[in-house]
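Input chain follows. Return structure tokens only.
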Amino acid sequence: MRRNSDFAHAYAVILAGGSGTRFWPLSRRRRPKQLLHLLGKRTLLEETVARILPVIPAERIHVFTNEVLRGQVVRCLPQLPKSHIVAEPVGRNTAPTIGLAAHEILRHDPQGLMVVLTSDHVIRKAGAFRRVLRAACRWAAVEGRSVTIGLKPTRPDTGYGYVRKGQRVARVAGQEIYRVQRFTEKPPLATARRYFASGNYLWNGGMFIWRASTLLRHLAHSKPEMARDLERIRRAGGVRATRTLRRIFPRLEKISIDYAVMEKAPEVFVVAADIGWSDVGSWDVVYDLQAKDAEGNVRPRGSLSLDARGNIVVSPRKFVAAVGVRDLVIVETDDALLVAARERSQDVGKVVQELEKRGLVELL
């Protein structure tokens, strides 16, 4: 059937490294955002896998994480082959990871198509997402094409990168495909307002689709030293060559795939998507995404709220009574308590920085 053939050579590459800062004290170095149950019974990583399983089977899903988190990721995703959950020796940003993944895919399938996804975002419209992904895979199946999924902005926002749409080149599987005119990093507010008003810009959500061979060809052109080192790892046995991986991978340039490839590649396209996307970047965003009580609070069942409005309370073990407070974030764990204004929840990462300065590693 034609619609299944669009994914016949598709391989998902899920990026699941990194450490937790913005959701402290719930998130820690050993339990970052993607492994938290922020919005339900499943972690964000589990949700990411569940979204793509209807179109990409478990044996074609690869997860790249770090050595500290690998054991947890394996336990979190028992349906995936353990060999497909790869621990990088050190974090080198996304370009080296994606290059490493491309070699793994080509080892199994010379026509392999990479679908690069983040592990810690929310997509509310899973069906719409898969339809967008189908169009992107069909378009990216042609050698030399690179595709990104652009998110239709809902507001001017300085926290996201932007993609400027160029000429519309096709309509594929009901989705509009545009040539990318340029990528822009996080803009100042006045610029973000102009972008939003123009209707010509989309948010860059960090989701990319291309043939593995296309990606490696672009890396060889834009980052030849990195490409040579990745080839050395491949010849030694790829991710299974642990000794070689630990020797070579740490010396690779630390750079994102946006800078290394996407901003330089000649044939880059974007699919405009309305998929209910959020990067879940703060406790305030979690508040927005959750169901609320009559007073606008997000709180555990059984807790108490008296003349308290607009608060988010996370306390899995202790009873919490909120009295006469407004718009707070209250998060309790065994060893820490966070109380913050919701509007300042973006600053929670500064707490982690201060803890590092004070050497309070037991709280990290």
